[in-house]
UniProtKB/TrEMBL annotation:
Organism annotation: Streptomyces incarnatus
Designated name of the protein: Alpha-glucosidase
UniProt similarity note: Belongs to the glycosyl hydrolase 13 family.
PANTHER family assigned to the protein according to its UniProt record, in alphabetical order: ALPHA-AMYLASE FAMILY MEMBER, NEUTRAL AND BASIC AMINO ACID TRANSPORT PROTEIN RBAT
Glycosyl hydrolase family 13 catalytic domain boundaries: 21-413
InterPro entries assigned to the protein according to its UniProt record, in alphabetical order: GH, GH13_cat_dom, O16G_dom_2
CDD domains for the chain: AmyAc_OligoGlu_TS
Amino acid sequence: MGQPTHAPKDRDWWRSAVIYQVYVRSFADGDGDGTGDLAGVRARLPYLAELGVDALWFTPWYLSPMKDGGYDVADYRAIDPAFGTLAEAEKLIAEAAGLGIRTIVDIVPNHVSDRHPWFRAALAAGPGSPERELFHFRPGRGPHGELPPNDWPSQFVGSTEPVWTRLPDGDWYLHLFTPEQPDLNWAHPAVRQEHEDVLRFWFERGVAGVRVDSAALLAKDPALPDLATHPGPHPFVDRDELHDIYRSWRRVADAYDGVFVGEVWLPDAERFARYLRPDELHTGFNFSFLSCPWDPARLRTAIDTTLAEHAPVGAPATWVLCNHDVTRTVTRYGRADTGFDFAAKAFGTPTDLALGTRRARAAALLSLALPGSVYLYQGEELGLPEAEIPVDRIQDPMYFRSNGVDPGRDGCRVPLPWVAGMPYAGFGSQQEPWLPQPVDWPSYAVDRQQRNADSMLSLYREAIAARPVFGDGPLTWLPAPDGVLAFTRAEGMTCVVNLAPAPAELPEHSHLLLASGPLDDTGRLPQDTAAWLRS
């Protein structure tokens, strides 16, 4: 193929980028069949350019049976027909680059779909075959092999189902997620070679980076010991041999000036930072900030801890308020518990959306003023709330694997509203979208918000455009009253966020650059409001 087209050359672009997460299935529907697709994304590229984002991160767009929202991949080199074709993906990458927008694809290395050719060959080959060595097949325990090989828990929080499935031939296979997602054996050289080839495949097509799903889960203790009685390192989380894998990946990426962002959920800051050493992943998602409650002391601690754990390895922090797995920010901040925990998700949680929206606007200015890169999940710029999905329309396996306790993740994946007066709020469908839209969805439509200078969309556009004024310097906290966060980045630029009950006096300044809401009659910053100031 010809020379790939890249966005403008800047090797350090990722250190301060605003990256927009596209969940293709719900972004825009180009062919009217109820499912978002690449044609829909291509048609909306001018919107994304006007929003001002630097890159697009696409959740998996590969061939998939969609048993887990595309994270069950059957072919990493093919686009699922529901989304389009490989040629269309190449056009999308090139057209986005022409607008100065880079592309990041999602790689799912821990597992594949049970429809993947490797797994189908393993099933056909039978116990003890070389084909099964690419996965984790084991005989069961008990007199007749009727018990699973070990006690490992599912990675779906709240799931009561086992992570082993028994086949008619007696073998069991491991799947930390659904049975349709068999785990790969990363001790096998063919698995490592295949993924390096897949990375090259997409870098050759012009992608600028790769997001690594479940990055800390790939390596397994070859003995597959019981978790409850195992005295050593965790048998499948954050194992030391992972770092050799990512060092080899880094060598591939460096040949293309490509970058990585890892999904690394780890409570240990020092262990987390190891993944971001100069010869491994470039960045990692910051889940402590994402899950942090709307509380001034805890937010400051999350920010300080994040910056401190990145400093020794020289990696930039990442800031994110929401993604395709997490309750939307407007809804979360409007609840009594404003943090996020998968285990705490429940149906019918009372929510004050007006309060949540006010806080989400302030959080937008806070996150965009912090040093590092920012990830913006589609629809957050519209202030979309978490949708209540009727039980008979829920598709997420988290709901089913928790026996209906966890409402699942569909509520943050509802198709976007584009035009208020069109069917299905202009998502593009001639038939109902794959997930139902709430009746008030048109009120959040892009066309309405574009005409409203006070809308969430207008706030995000202004903030992203003005963000460079903060420069690339470190964060310095300023003295502030209890409940108020105030810091500088570049000389003369200050961000202030008031989480206290009473209005706060603003630091001395010459110009109010931007505020998440109006000041009070005396020029003070109301509760749950943020401002950017120039001295």
